[in-house]
Amino acid sequence: MTAIVDAFQRIPRDRRLIFAPALGQVWTAADLDAAAQALARHLEAAGVSQGDLVASQLGNHPASVATLLACRYLQAPLMPLDAGATAAETAATIQRFGARAVLLQAAADAPSGCEAVSVTADVRVCVRTADAQRYPGRAMLKLTSGSTGMPKATLTAEAHLCGDSASIIEAMGIRPDDIQIAVIPLSHAYAVGNLVVPLLLQGTAIVVRDGFVPHRVVEDAMAVGARVWPGVPFMFQHVLQHPPGRWPETLTHLISAGAPLDARTILAMHETVGSTIHSFYGTSETGGIAFDERSTPPPAGNGGFVVGRPMPQVTVTLRADEQATTGTGGRVHVASRGVASGYAGLEDASFTDGGFLTGDLGHFDAEGRLVLTGRVSSFVNVACKKVQPAEVEGVLREADGVTDAKVFGVPDEKRGETLVACVIGDPSANPRALRSHCIARLSPQKVPRVILNFECWPLTERGKVDRAALIEAALERLARPNR
Question: CA-CA 20 to 30 A from 72: which of 64, 144, 318, 412?
Answer without folding.
Answer: 144
